[in-house]
Amino acid sequence: FTDTGTMISSKVIMKMIEECIKDENINKPLSDNEISKYFTAKGVSVARRTITKYREKINIPNSTQRKRNTDD
Predict the structure, then answer these.
(1) 26 in Cβ contact with 15 (< 8 Å)
(2) Whether pLDDT at 9 is above 90
(3) pTM for this predicted structure
């Protein structure tokens, strides 16, 4: 839901998650909780567990798996 109470479709949320992750720092990827807080700051209320569910649904690994190993 947005600040105005408007419902947002799951497809829109998934697209927003993809955009958020696409622009993240590869050495410090965003956790699901940080993504949830980012959405809240944008006026969109999405629970962390919902972020996790949608992220897994679109086959995006968690932040630990996305982190680039800088020791290479």
Answers:
(1) no
(2) no
(3) 0.82
